[in-house]
Amino acid sequence: MTNQNINVYTLIKPEIIKLRKVGIKTAILDCRLLLSKSLGRKLTLYNHENVNISKNEVEHFKTLIVQRLSGKPVSRIINKRDFWKKEFKLNEETLDPRPDSETLIESVLEHYRDKLQALKILDLGSGSGCLGLSLLGEYHNSKVSFFDISKKSLEIVKINSLNFGLSDRSKFVHLDWRDKDWDLNLIKIENEIKFDILISNPPYIPESEIKNLQKEVREYDPFIALNGGKDGLNAYKLIIPKLRNILKKNGKIFFETGKGQEKFITSIAMEYGLLPIQYKKDLSGVNRVIVFIIK
Ligand SMILES: C[S@@+](CC[C@H](N)C(=O)[O-])C[C@H]1O[C@@H](n2cnc3c(N)ncnc32)[C@H](O)[C@@H]1O
Q1: What residue's CA is closest to ligand 1, atom 8?
Q2: Cα(202)–Cα(185) distance, integer angstroms
Q3: Can you list the domains of the chain with their CATH numbers?
Q4: Going by fewer Cβ within 10 Å, which terminus of the chain is more open, N or C?
Q5: Using a 6 Å CB cutoff, which residues line ligand 1?
Q6: What is the pLDDT of residues 1-43, one digit of tens each?
Q7: Termini Cα distance of the chain
Q8: 223-239 pLDDT, tens per residue?
Q9: Residue 71: band (very low, low, confident or very high) from pLDDT cuts 50, 70, 90
């Protein structure tokens, strides 16, 4: 079968028009990413490049466009997403990492300026591993334990850690923070050595609001990664009372939070003697991360 040599923009232009018609604002980038996927390219193609493409590859590209037109996010079609400085593989049980969550990485970097220190970090509800693995990329002597209820998401963290050469400093813990003794079970696995830092982006969407989320989130992000129960605070209520048992004195907690939740989370945390030391806004000006210290 003969290939055609064609300019990327010429090839994707009709598909861009289709995506724009259904209101997809990122039509050009989406087409470039999907074309790269159908050609098996690791790097994203640019509009000005030329590609040598077979009929089958064009057909494959068009089937990916049909998926996108049906509302499936690009990250779910290509099963990967850029976060901080790396490209993370995803599967159906991992949350699609959000740019807002990079606020948490920035906050840890502000609080721990010496990148050579050996920190013991817990990534609670680790999903794709985007938070913990990004920190391992910054702190070369540190270790992260990735904790999740989803075995399938832990498998993806394993793959991501191997791909980034970070598996030696990664540990994978399959536990459920709804279990009564999850803290004691965790600390046993950790040979009774407590953590310096806890990072967590727990599920925080009130259950009744999930049906009103964008289709891309509602239908493609795992329900268990979104559902924060009646008021969105279930996970914080289960996690916070246990923190003294798993963190060292002066240990710090970095929680991602939903819009408007900071005062409720602060009051739960203060009941258990945690002191709030920072509220950090994301790029849209929403308080996205709260930092607490254990005194
Ligand atoms: C909002 S996602 C965050 C994923 C990832 N850290 C990120 O920022 O993209 C929440 C994660 O918590 C996990 N999770 C939900 N309920 C849990 C539970 N009871 N015990 C442990 N992990 C849980 C989910 O599987 C999901 O990976």
Answers
A1: 201
A2: 19
A3: 4-76 (1.10.8), 80-294 (3.40.50.150)
A4: N
A5: 95, 97, 101, 125-128, 130-131, 148-150, 153, 176-178, 201-203, 224-225
A6: 689 999 999 999 999 999 999 999 999 999 999 999 999 998 8
A7: 70
A8: 999 999 999 999 999 99
A9: very high
Vertex 132, ends 80 and 235: CA angle to 5°? 95
Nearest Cα residue to 25 out of 62, 63, 74, 59:
74
DSSP 153-184: HHHHHHHHHHHTT-GGGEEEEE--TTSTTHHH
Atom of ligand 1 nearest to the CA of 125: 12
Q: Residue 275 belongs to what H/E stretch?
A: strand 274-281
Ligand 1 atom at minimal distance to the Cα of residue 93? 25
CB 153 within 8 Å of CB 89: no
Pocket test for ligand 1, best of 126, 134, 236, 288 (most atoms within 8 A of CB): 126
How many whole angstroms from 271 Cα to the centroid of ligand 1? Answer: 24
Q: Ligand 1 mean position to 59 CA, how many Å?
A: 37
Residues 6+ away with beta carbon under 8 Å from 210: 218, 223, 226, 227
DSSP 3-state assignment of 135?
Answer: helix
| Phi, psi dihedrals of residue 279, rounded to the nearest 5° | -120, 120
Summarize pLDDT for 143-158 with one digit per residue, the tens: 999 999 999 999 999 9
Specify the residue with its C-alpha closest to ligand 1, atom 20.
176
Closest approach atom of ligand 1 to CA 153: 27
Distance 226 CA to ligand 1 centre (A): 8
Which residue's alpha carbon is nearest to atom 18 within ligand 1? Answer: 176
Rounded CA gap, 12 and 25, in Å?
15
CA angle 39, 41, 43 (to 5 degrees): 140
Identify the three-state secondary structure at position 191.
coil
